[in-house]
Design brief:
Helix content is 61%, strand content 7%. By secondary structure, it is α/β, with parallel strands linked by helices. The protein is elongated, with a radius of gyration of 35 Å.
Length: 378
């Protein structure tokens, strides 16, 4: 360490002397050139360079000594051979065969180290690529992240403010258990209905938290861990910006961004869509209806052993037209999934909350048998 310190000081001295010699005034430059030519005096540059070279040579020697010390302490087989060569004074040629197995080990260790380094470098590059891809997707789908941030904040605040053990009563509701356990014959859509201020958002935040917990701490199975995405619609009383984007379309985009962050395959698909002619045309992209966006995002795309859990809270806060578009998708979800073969069907699971009047009986009559009433919490 002391030698490295001296090397650094010597290098700086060489630079300083050279600068001083080259960048003086005219008179100083003339005197310097005169000294170099007549007196062969370069103000100490050559002397310092010789000192620097000597320090470098010494440093190389010390490096070799430290390396040999490490070998002697850590490689018993190589140490024995080195002592044997010293005691017997055998030539390198005579000992070459004895070194073969050591060379093989050295090669093996070297290959292992290179593999570890390559893996680490590959992981780093993959993480960086994933960050860039996700940023591309967010910029294209969301533009500003205000809507997504408000949804996340609402979910977090409801979860923090909820009572301890909130939502545990759902473990005794067979319909919910069938839904969350991903039984093939369970209804893909579960409705949570109740009057205003009966705790629907609190229950939604509990469900989101429990789904995330089961994703990270659940037992390992042959199937892939389920993906969890959610969106909390802001209350009507909250001030909204002028010309806001359609809330139902923005909700679907927020869900897509969350799923892409969890599933590399889906992320790749969204990247292709972001670069497609349809999505590159901003006017056409903004005019996509809720149904067109749902189909384009491919939430019901065929994927084996993969489940999407989606939580949509506060559909009763949507304006009429936007609500109708999203309700049409949800009501037709069961039939659209049924059209796929069982072996290719992804297990899409959706929970939607709202007032009882939010879900027209002519559209959701079959789902009311499996709905949860939050009045049970009161």
């Amino acid at each position: 360490m002391r030698l490295i310190h001296k090397l650094m000081i010597s290098f700086v001295d060489v630079c300083a002397l050279s600068i001083s010699l080259r960048k003086g005034g005219k008179w100083k430059s003339f005197k310097g050139n005169l000294k170099k030519v007549i007196l062969n005096d370069d103000s100490g540059v050559q002397a310092e360079l010789k000192r620097f070279k000597a320090l470098v040579d010494t440093h190389s020697s010390i490096q070799g000594t430290i390396t040999l010390e490490a070998v002697l302490h850590n490689k018993n087989d190589l140490t024995q051979l080195l002592f044997l060569a010293s005691d017997s004074k055998e030539s390198i040629t005579a000992l070459s065969k004895k070194f073969d197995h050591v060379a093989d080990k050295v090669d093996h260790y070297g290959e292992a180290i290179i593999e570890v380094l390559n893996t680490a470098e590959g992981t780093k590059k993959s993480e960086q690529t994933a960050k860039e891809n996700q940023k591309t997707i967010r910029d294209k789908l969301l533009g500003s992240t205000d809507v997504a941030q408000k949804s996340t904040t609402t979910c977090t605040e409801c979860w923090v403010a909820s009572m301890k053990n909130s939502g545990e009563w759902m473990d005794n509701v067979p319909k919910y258990q069938d839904w969350v356990s991903r039984k093939p014959d369970a209804d893909p859509l579960l409705l949570i209905t109740g009057d205003s201020n009966t705790g629907k958002s609190f229950l939604s935040s509990v469900i989101v938290h429990r789904l995330h917990s089961s994703r990270t701490s659940g037992p390992q199975t042959s199937t892939r861990a389920p993906l969890v995405a959610y969106h909390f619609f802001p209350k009507k009383t909250e001030k909204s910006p002028q010309n806001p984007p359609p809330p139902s379309q923005m909700a679907l985009k927020c869900l897509a961004v969350q799923i892409a962050a969890q599933d590399p395959t889906y992320e790749k698909k969204l990247l292709e869509l972001c670069r497609s002619p349809l999505w590159n045309d901003e006017s056409r992209f903004k005019d996509l209806s809720c149904k067109e966006l749902w189909q384009s995002l491919g939430f019901v795309a065929p994927k084996r052993d993969l489940t999407y859990f989606i939580v949509l809270d506060g559909l009763d806060q949507l304006p009429g037209e936007s609500s109708a578009q999203l309700l049409e998708i949800l009501s037709g979800m069961k039939s659209s999934m049924a059209s796929l073969a069982d072996s290719d069907r992804c297990q899409l699971r959706v929970i939607a909350t709202g007032n009882l009047d939010t879900f027209p009986k002519e559209q959701f009559g079959e789902f009311f048998n499996s709905s949860l009433y939050t009045k049970m919490m009161c």
